[in-house]
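Good morning C.,

I know you're traveling, so I'll keep this short. The sequence:
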Amino acid sequence: MKFGTKAIHAGIEPDPATGAIMTPIYQTSTYVQQSPGDHKGYEYSRTHNPTRTALQNNLAALENGKHGICFSSGLGAIDAVIKLFNPGDEIISTNDLYGGSYRLFTKVYERYGIIFKFVPMSDAASIADHITENTKMIWVETPTNPMMNIIDIAAVAKLSTGNKIILAVDNTFASPYLQNPLDLGADIVMHSVTKYLGGHSDVVMGALVVNDDELAKKLVFIQNATGATPGPQDCFLVIRGIKTLHLRMERHSQNGKTIAAYLKNHPKVDKIYWPGFESHPNHEIAKKQMRDYGGMISFTLVGNKESAARKLMESFQIFALAESLGGVESLCGHPASMTHASIPKEEREKVGLVDSLIRLSVGVEDAEDLKNDLANALSKI
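The tokens, ready to paste straight into the viewer:
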């Protein structure tokens, strides 16, 4: 079954009671049992809910996995993964990652004795220098947020397998349409479902997809035991959103290519980060492991002044200045003060995340309108 067909049909069945083609919103907290322990597979909606089950099966199919597990947010999903580990365990993470992930790792779990190492991963082989007998997981983002670095998933998977280490990949920026980390050897795929999977800026959710039955069992136990589960209304919204994921990602990628080319040739733009450029570091790896390059772009302006970046973002008419990404509408953000503010300035700047960096989430509007919006805003600085 091809991706577009899976997006619409995988894991989704007509409602057995009515034949409704859309999965119903099972807005219930509990389920009637015939006798104690004798039920129809559902007993309490924190544990299971039919709307959530349909979504989890759909997500698993999109990532070519066996088990999908949904959470109330992307950070809730990451939190469940870290709960697999014990004090003294070491986790190697890419040094360019979402600020919320960094905050969870350093401000919450370091207090409980889990050790995090933040290292550059553009050269996957260099990760081996940081592995010890206590290393239990490697945490990868690719493309990274916000510097769009590309990490070779297959190479890291070979390294992690050889050392019996779990490999987890945050696949939020790519989505399952552009990249499938399980096929490249990853053990866990994480999504902030809020972004491209939901796609309409109307829901907050996270998800994990795995193949290993035992690993899935542990994560499902944590999901139920800690209770960070999404409600059926949110699950319904994501099921609806996923039905157009392939169409949206095609347009995001087309528009991303157009806007990246426009910015690259603009005299007021200094550095631009987009993996579709042949000059982008590890472009060949991106070409190998991704189907296209998506709609996420970061850039700086000539002069590298934060004041100019702020003026630009305040001058947009279509690009909305807002947190998040991956919706149908185009957004712009200032990582240093928004999504990555929890990372110390000196750590941000080590990876190139300067205070003047602008991040764009290019939506599915008409590309000419987006270029005109950029041209108008750039003329104001």
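Safe travels,
E.
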